[in-house]
Amino acid sequence: PTKYIPTKDHLLRDWMGLAELTGCTREDVSSVSRSADPTRSVLNRWAEKEGSSIQRFLLFLKKMDRYDVFDDIILLVIADINDYKVTKSRNVDTSMFLTMKDRELHRQGLQPQQYHASILYADDDAEFAVQVVNTLEQQYKLAIFLKQRDLIGGIIEHEATMKIIAERSNRLIVILSPAFLDCSENKYFLSFAQSIGIEQRSRKIIPCIFKECQIPYELKPLHKLYYKDSDMFCNFFEKLYRSVDSANALVLPRSIENALTVSNSTSPNLLTVPEVVSNSITECSSLPDLNTSSNP
C-alpha cells in the first residue's frame, strides 16, 4: 500500500492536502478522487471561490512542504502573470498569435511579428527557398515569413498564411518553377496576394525565376528576377534585397516596462508574487503535478 508522510501540521503532501487547504468538502474529495487529474479538479473548484489567488496557491505549496513544486513552477507562474497583466492592460487579442515569435513578443509588451516579406515556393524548391531566407535574414537582416518554420501548431494553416500575407508582410517573394505551377495551393496564394496588392495599391509580389517555366498570366506585366542571370548582370540576392525595400523598415511598438520584477533567487522567502484574480489559476500554461506525493 502507498505510504503517506504528512507535514508537521498533519497535511498530506499531494492533492489531498491541497484539497484540505482550499476548503473542499468530503463530497468534493470523493468526486475529485475519481477524476483523471485530481490536482486540476481541485484547482478548478477552488478558482470558482472568492479569495482564490495565485499568491495563496503558492503559500499552500509552502504549507505542504512542496518546495520542489514551487521551484519547478515559479518562473512559469511569473511569466503567465506577466502575460495576463499585459493582455488586460493592452486588450491584446491572443487570436493574433499565429507564429512562434508572436508569444515571445507579447511577453515583451510588443505587437505580433511583422515581416518584410513572405516566401512562396514548391516543395521541390525548398532547398533554394531556405537559401533565400537565410541570406535575407542573416546577411541583410530582414524578417521573412516561412510558414513551415514559423506557424504555431494547431492553427488553420491557409487562414493564418493569408492573414500574414495580407496584413503582416510588405512583400511576397514567389519562387517560380515548373513544380510551383503544378501546385494548386501556391496558385491560390498567388492570386490572393495579387488581389491584395490591387486593393492596397502596392507592389506586393516579387517574382523570382528559379527554373524556366510558363509565367502565370497575372505575373507577366511584372519585372522578374532571374536567378540564373545573377553573375551575368547583377547579384541576385542584392537585387532581391533592394526589391523587398528594406529602406521601408518595420517599426514595432516600444516595449512596455515589465509588469513584474523577479528576484535573482527563486527562494519562496525572497520572491514576491502580486495578487491575480482567480481565473488566472486555471489559465496557467503549466499546472503542478500533485497527483503523487513527494517526501522531502
UniProtKB/TrEMBL annotation:
GO terms for molecular function: TIR domain binding; Toll-like receptor binding. It is found in: Cytoplasm. Transmembrane segments: none annotated. Residues 113-244 form the TIR domain. GO terms for cellular component: cytoplasm; plasma membrane. Pfam families: Death (PF00531), TIR_2 (PF13676). Residues 9-77 form the Death domain. Keywords: Cytoplasm, Inflammatory response. GO terms for biological process: defense response to Gram-positive bacterium; innate immune response; MyD88-dependent toll-like receptor signaling pathway; positive regulation of canonical NF-kappaB signal transduction; Toll signaling pathway; toll-like receptor 4 signaling pathway. This is TIR domain-containing protein. The lineage of its organism: Eukaryota, Metazoa, Ecdysozoa, Arthropoda, Hexapoda.
